[in-house]
């Protein structure tokens, strides 16, 4: 995987297409799903020009492009579908925040598609760009693989309302699938938080703190992806573009409610994670205090014993006890009694 940095675009004219982000693959995969209530076809095309006839069909066309590093292909399809050069520039720059722009004959939408990468054990953060036209939807993704498999299955099997509605409902369905997947990420984060809480209560280790900060970073990624989405959905639901029908705006309000719910959950989790850091530090401090208490008690017990041993270890000539046969066992017994008395005193004070 290679990555192009934003600095490589510095100084170039506005509208210059330079891919900013990671290059996940060598080829750009283009798939087309064309349908209405009676018919359906799904194809994978090798040439970007094969998508051109689907601009003005009477059926609904979903053209999905996986891979944004081929800026020539993005420019070809963008020019044919009448996309502004600055929109094409935003598509290949994968560091955009969620937003929407209304150009009259099409609507441009950017979202963050989040999914959990099991092998890496981390949240994958990917930019998705949608172009809603009269009878088509263009979707641009950074990498192959997404959260739309269930939607594709519904279209293939003619389940639900997708095949009965227009391109605006398809765009809504794409957005809805992305937002619904946020809940899956949050469920996984909630399980991780519960697991860390148990470890903190039982036996926190050095690996606990990095795990907490890993969750904190995930919540930050989620927050950056979801907070601006409220404005996007709100603008689509209250806009006056005829591309979005009134019947679809009702569903967009449902996405808005889900977005608010996700934001509330993220904020709750962030507070919980901050509390976990405090609990971890308190737990480590308590463990240190317990260790210091044990060491202090042991030191306190051995202080008088050390004193007694020190007195009889000075080897003065006139020490009558040294010449008595019972002195050594008597001294050991006395030292044992002193130690037991101190242990009893510490227990009575509940110091351990």
Describe the model:
The longest helix has 66 residues, at 246-311. This protein has helices spanning 71-80, 85-92, 149-157, 167-202, 208-238, 246-311, 327-348, and strands at residues 2-4, 21-23, 29-35, 40-45, 60-66, 99-102, 107-117, 122-132, 136-141. Strand 8 (122-132) and strand 9 (136-141) form a beta hairpin. The mean pLDDT is 85. Helix 4 (167-202) packs antiparallel against helix 5 and helix 6 (246-311) packs antiparallel against helix 7 (327-348). A 7-stranded mixed β-sheet has the order 4-3-5-9-8-7-6. Strands 1-2 form a two-stranded antiparallel ribbon. It has 7 helices and 9 strands; from the N terminus they run E-E-E-E-E-H-H-E-E-E-E-H-H-H-H-H. The protein folds into 2 domains: 2-282, Beta Polymerase, domain 2, CATH 3.30.460.20; 291-348, Up-down Bundle (Methane Monooxygenase Hydroxylase, Chain G, domain 1), CATH 1.20.58. The protein has 352 residues and is an alpha+beta fold.
Number of helices: 7
Give me the CATH architecture of the largest domain, please: 2-Layer Sandwich
Radius of gyration: 34 Å
User: Main beta sheet: strand number and arrangement?
Assistant: 7 strands, mixed
Uncertain regions spanning at least 5 consecutive residues: none
| Topology as a string of helices (H) and strands (E) | EEEEEHHEEEEHHHHH
Separation of the first and last Cα atoms: 57 Å
How would you sum up the global shape?
Answer: rod-shaped
Judged by helices, strands and strand pairing, the structural class is alpha+beta
